[in-house]
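Bit of a strange request maybe. I'm writing a small parser for structure token strings and I need a real example to test against, not something I typed by hand. Could someone generate the tokens for this chain?
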Amino acid sequence: MNDFLDALGLAFNSHDPQQLAALFAEDYRSVQPAHPGREFVGRPQVLENWTAVFDGVPDFAATLVGGAQDGDAVWSEWSWSGTHADGTGFAMSGVIVAVLRSGLIAEGRLFMEPVDQKETSIDEAVKELYQP
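Reply from user aminoacidic:
Good idea to test on real output. This should exercise your parser:
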């Protein structure tokens, strides 16, 4: 895809939180628009988060679905999968929008969400979301 996304994919799949955190600026700023309370700043929190991810999902696997870069902005769609340490399945998918500075992720907007395991039809989803 591109060198940056290749490096990010390798870091995700390395299961090495230090390798992954090394791709982030010290003053990295993370925003999750659908979950405003999850906003944070700093590489140390990236390291803490990904240490927990790799401990909780030891076989974590990231698959890059697609991506594009425009200057310092990189859009990527990911599928994450694996098995939690307790044996239950793990699956998330979504988009990450990153802003690079000096080759490191300086800002991130994450739109990653757990994959819904129920077989909800579009009619049921529309009713649930818009007509409670």
